[in-house]
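Sample entry (355 residues):
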Amino acid sequence: MMYHSARKYLEANGPIEASAPVRVDLGGTLDISTLHYPLRHLDPLTFNAAVALRTRVRLQPYADGRVKVSSRGFADAEVELDKVPFDHPLGLMFAVAAYFGLTGVHIDIQSSSPPRSALGGSSSAAVALVAAYADLRRVSGQPASLNRRQAAGLAHHVEAGVAGVPCGLQDQLAAAYGGIHAWHWQGGPEGTQYKREALLREDGSAWFEKRALLVYCGQPHESRNINSRWITQFLQARTRSEWAAIVDCTRGFVDAMKNGDATGAAVWMNREADLRLKMTPDVLDEMGTRLCAAARNAGCGARFTGAGGGGCVWAFGRQADIENLKPEWAAASETTASAALLDFIVDPQGMRVHS
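Predicted structure, serialized as tokens:
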């Protein structure tokens, strides 16, 4: 195979760095074509808000013919690119490297979010890595400019190719665009299409931040099992009504956001979470169950991020209710060594190459 080494360029010109945010979400899985094509008549949509817990990717020089990946929470791995196992825990990063065909690179990934926290960290890393590699090709004289839509699409296609399970696109879009969005899924004859609806522009992000909380529960998640069960249940026609109701809940949540109705948004958030708990009761671990119960008692909405099964829980509600809930969530997180209340700041930028 014909790969090219970037070692000499990186040694002479210094490393290249890019970053992208993670996200909180509601209505997820509807961005997977397995669901949104059959549900197209319902106008399915998902919601996400980019969180300024950035994943940074740094490309540094390494041995010709080889690629090394370092990422907190995983053992370092370095291989010859044409021999890399894409089912490796860092296989997605190696698959992106293989797509660009550049060796002699050490990919150093630094995440501000906890590893495997169900905040879309792997998709964030993939988008940042696509942006960094595309910039490396550009500055070394090989045209490879990518806009945000293209970077998100490429990261998604590579992930879908190596994941072994159906993959959605909303995580990559949040990483690429940043901000707060509703994503409307409009699958057609040319493949998955979507409409981007920006929400809470200008000072709206501050309004959102004052009404949201985010906690890492201390237990890493594994989304494949839960997502696979949701897909299997849907294919077997066991949960069609639940997914139709999740579309309604997501639309209700988005409409409440547009109207500045935090109380209404909390109601829709809890309804959506209840539907998922009905399908997969183990989607919340013990800590997540305690946090969600506390949020509801405080008059707030609460939901696991991503596919749950560990990771993070986020809450939304009136500012006064969130302020009352915050010390309770902080105290609960202190009972587990690795759990923590995380800073919730909306990231407006999305993917970025750092010069």
